[in-house]
Amino acid sequence: MKKFKTKKKFGQHLLISEGVIKKIVDEIKINKEDIIVEIGVGTGQLTEELLKRNPKKVYGIEIDETAYPIIEERFKNFENFILIKKNFFDVNLYELAENNKIKLVGNLPYNVASLILINTVFYIDILKMSVFMIQKEVAERLLAKPKTKNYSFLTVFIQTFFDIEYIMSVPARFFSPPPKVTSAVVKLLPKKDIPDIDKKKFKNFVSSLFANKRKMLRSKIDKDILKKVGIEETARVDQLNVEDFLKLYK
């Protein structure tokens, strides 16, 4: 098998620690009915562990053409594995779900991890859960509280729809090549009561409030509306909690 070279443009860092791989897959709690979608197969370390647990199907999404022969060779004897040779953003997860719910997993490329996280919101009605390896800094943003420096658009948008669990930190030495940052594994579970709102409009609304976040809210939202929902007109966006954003949006 020819040696695989990671590529910077795809943000590739291959996870090589068996212990971490097992821990990630343990968190997915695979049963034989599960449809698993893995984002970024790479050379298939995580994929192999997923297949060992014998789910109904594993779809592996991979953008890097040089990885295809390696993946195809490695998993040629697994009938429940299907390689999708595309960019994640060009894949329609509804088609893979076949009217079932899916579990998403992946060691996400750092350069697009936030965009992938945002994208999962639009598939929430077919998601059982997601377990992702991301930059620790992004994980901290996902879990941030109001009035802290990590509290951002990403925090609010993801926390509106998901309960987030921090599973573990992963040092750079567990990857090849080692990234310059520490990574983290997080688990996202759709909330029991998902707000029934237009997700795209809500995303744009939250994003627009976080633009110029030092400005007081009265410069962005009508004072009467702020008064109606009981928010001080001198408050700033990072003082609002998720409920406040929903009230204001509605």
Automatic annotation (TrEMBL):
Gene3D superfamilies: Ribosomal RNA adenine dimethylase-like, domain 2, Vaccinia Virus protein VP39. Residues 20-192 form the Ribosomal RNA adenine methylase transferase N-terminal domain. Pfam families: RrnaAD. The keyword rRNA-binding does not apply. The keyword Mitochondrion does not apply. Belongs to the class I-like SAM-binding methyltransferase superfamily. rRNA adenine N(6)-methyltransferase family. RsmA subfamily. Specifically dimethylates two adjacent adenosines (A1518 and A1519) in the loop of a conserved hairpin near the 3'-end of 16S rRNA in the 30S particle. May play a critical role in biogenesis of 30S subunits. This is Ribosomal RNA small subunit methyltransferase A. It comes from Hydrogenothermus marinus. The gene is rsmA.
